Write the structure tokens for this entry.
Amino acid sequence: MITIKLFAAMAEEAGLENIQIPYQEGLTTEGVKQWLTETYPTLAARVPAAMVAVNQTFVSTERMLMDEDEVAFIPPVSGG
Amino acid sequence: MSLFEIIETPIAVESVMNKVVHPNCGAINLFVGTVRELTKGKKTLHLEYAAYKEMAEKQLARIGEEISERCPEAIVAITHRIGRLEISDIAVVIAVATPHRADSYEYSRYAIERIKEIVPIWKKEHWETGEAWIGDQKEITAYPTGKPECANGGE
């Protein structure tokens, strides 16, 4: 399984913070983005603006995923 | 005792400071970030902070590493609070100890600026007129370069 984590406005718009999807050979971060956009059309505008982190590390390019990976969408941060 | 923490309870400023006390250091700079009532004339009633806790603590530690690369003698501790905060509540405390004072000022500022760039924490403003998750501190666009700068531990 792949765990998708959503935060802040994205979590609110999707109505949930954690989503689990089955792992498939060859799945990439781009594939997860596409799945998310298709499944939650209300997130379409926010997905491209979010950074992606795999297992709590930012990735700036498409990344191959492995089973049990955690893919987080990090919208613009506002801590401090 | 962790130097970099996300907590849901009020921050004890002195406890953060005590983590960085060291005989080699002659300066400790404390930055205390509090909840402001007025932003551009808009009145905040209270705030709500949320975090990707595990990653946020790692990113705070990364800020500490970045400071160590620039100033090996520096000792840094950062605690950020999440959950509901009222006006004037303390949201973040940064303690930077260095041998000499100039570095403690410099790296305290460095730390708060980096928090606003690379640490997955979000605030939701609650106003009299509504509420919204705030995208970024400048409220222009989140990642001006398209992504957080890579020195941050991205790849």
Summary: Chain B has a mean pLDDT of 90.
